[in-house]
Design goal:
globular, seven-stranded antiparallel beta sheet, 14 strands
């Protein structure tokens, strides 16, 4: 263990500082496709009983009209975090009228691209902006790629933590805001160094349905006539499978500082891209994308983790980040575990907690010009495609190291963070979460990706059939314990309120849409 990590753990283990560490917050955004009783992509509108996707704080849609997104509030406790997510699932299942939630990151069998419905948010200008943005994604990346689902894990520390970690290496006179941002960016650098471990431990998408590729060329193997896979893959969702986008490929920010990250994104949302200029913004009187820039908006940038700041109403997220600094991080690389009813459990969220604490406390040198940022990205891609390959080696600081040896080393350090968290909270769940991951390193067949492939082989079922069966079992689980009483009343009131809010937006937002888009784009500029 590094001296710095050791010192910081001892510092935070002091009684007065444990309370600061205890005030961490966690939130989950869980995506899932709605499917009909036969396992086909639901072609129905977002159910009105769930409220308005535009304005509901807990139930919305992502890319497709069928790609539902369930959002918790922030919680200090993992039990209450997952408890809220289960409650949202219970309510949703009570209103789905026979449809199911597809409990896998890779989609169900999809119809032809042209038939995949794009999410609709109503006729207000902000609703149309969201819809047109998604039309642009269809032109840029294809609709099938946008039907992939995952779990986003939001994480923050109490602002009181950062002064405790101040050290002699900081610039003189650094503000609290800038110190906090610098520490979160340091966390992100370490996350990029070590997130291959998460893909090995939690990747659960080693296979997919043939028609997902919509006829595109690939290098996958055939498991059966309807299923493609890679034998040692952990997360095809997070691979470069079918993802052809030269525009984004040239703008990988390495998170050495927040200002450089913001500047790169600002450049991307402001710089036209020739291929997108050929598409244009309006065709036959209909908007097809918001603009012809490398990114239409900042959220289009794909990454496994993002620095975030809650924006005010009407404020661009990038501007909020630039002006007020990093408030939390959003981990975006977690697959849905198809064997778990909500795709994740407390063991996983506790491990993520300890992992992110390690990334925060461990020394996080800047990425230099020697390709270390690229090496980290290559390690990640190696593990998502072949992470369970016996004897697999990765590249650490320019030298080869076995995945298992490096994983054992990292888990030793993460275990020390988990032990501290157990002392902070008076429990043993964090240490148990690390022990569960050690078992997967010792026995790769325990990983979710290996379990998915074994289940497919043992059942003799196609990817589509097996995942439909597990999704049906999870649906029965939630429908056997429906949302009732006060919680049901609260959810229904929230749905009604969101519908009323959307109607009000549609009443007042009636100006020219082109002017609205121009004003939104200008929101990155000065007040």
């Amino acid at each position: 263990m590094s001296d710095l990590l050791d010192r910081r753990l001892a510092l935070l283990d002091q009684p007065a500082h444990r309370a600061v560490l205890a005030r961490r917050l966690h939130g989950i955004e869980r995506e899932s496709l709605r499917v009909d009783p036969q396992g086909h992509l639901a072609m129905t509108p977002h159910p009105a009983a769930l409220g308005a996707a535009l304005t509901h704080p807990s139930i919305t849609t992502d890319y497709s009209e069928a790609l539902i997104e369930l959002i918790t509030g922030t919680h200090a406790s993992h039990e209450s975090l997952l408890g809220e997510l289960r409650d949202i699932h219970r309510f949703v299942y009570g209103e789905l009228d026979g449809e199911l939630l597809w409990n896998q990151s890779m989609p169900c069998g999809l119809p032809p691209e042209k038939d995949i419905p794009i999410a609709w948010f109503g006729t207000s200008n902000i609703g149309m902006l969201k819809h047109v943005y998604r039309r642009g994604l269809a032109y840029r990346y294809g609709k099938a790629m946008q039907c992939i689902a995952g779990i986003h894990f939001n994480f923050s520390f109490s602002e009181e933590l950062w002064p405790l970690l101040a050290d002699a290496g900081e610039p003189a006179g650094i503000s609290d805001k800038d110190r906090q941002s610098a520490r979160y960016v340091g966390l992100i650098r370490n996350f990029n160094r070590y997130s291959w471990l998460l893909m090995y431990l939690f990747g659960a998408s080693p296979a997919l349905a043939v028609d997902f590729l919509q006829g595109r060329p690939h290098r996958l193997e055939q498991l059966d006539e309807q299923t493609l896979y890679l034998p040692h893959a952990t997360s095809l969702r997070m691979s470069d499978l079918g993802y052809q986008n030269k525009a984004q490929a040239g703008m990988k920010p390495c998170y050495n500082d927040l200002s450089t990250y913001v500047a790169r994104l600002y450049e991307a949302v402001s710089t036209p891209w020739p291929e997108y200029e050929k598409i244009g913004t309006v065709r036959d009187g209909e908007w097809v994308q918001l603009n012809t820039n490398i990114l239409q908006i900042e959220n289009e940038y794909y990454s496994s983790i993002r620095p975030k700041r809650v924006a005010s109403s009407g404020e661009r997220p990038l501007r909020a980040l630039a002006e007020r600094g990093v408030q939390y991080v959003e981990v975006r690389c977690m697959d849905i575990d198809p064997f778990l009813p909500v795709g994740m459990d407390e063991t996983t969220s506790r491990f993520l907690d300890a992992f992110l604490l390690y990334c925060t406390l461990q020394e996080s040198p800047l990425f230099g010009d020697g390709g270390h940022c690229r090496l980290s990205a290559n390690n990640f891609l190696t593990v998502v495609k072949q992470g369970r390959q016996p004897g697999l080696t990765l590249n650490r600081d320019g030298k080869e190291i076995g995945l298992r040896a490096w994983a054992d080393e990292l888990l030793d350090h993460i275990a020390a963070c988990a032990d501290l968290l157990d002392r902070v909270h008076g429990e043993t769940g964090y240490a148990a979460s690390v022990a569960a991951q050690r078992a997967k390193v010792e026995a790769p067949e325990l990983t979710p990706s290996a379990r998915v492939l074994e289940a497919l082989r043992a059942s003799g079922m196609t990817f589509q059939a097996f995942m439909m069966e597990t999704s049906r079992q999870h649906a029965e689980h939630f429908r056997s314990q429906p949302c009732t009483g006060g919680k049901l009343a609260d959810f229904r009131a929230l749905a009604d309120r969101s519908l009323a809010e959307q109607r009000e937006l549609e009443r007042v937002q009636t100006g020219d849409f082109g002017e609205f888009v121009a004003a939104y784009q200008a929101g990155l500029l000065g007040k």
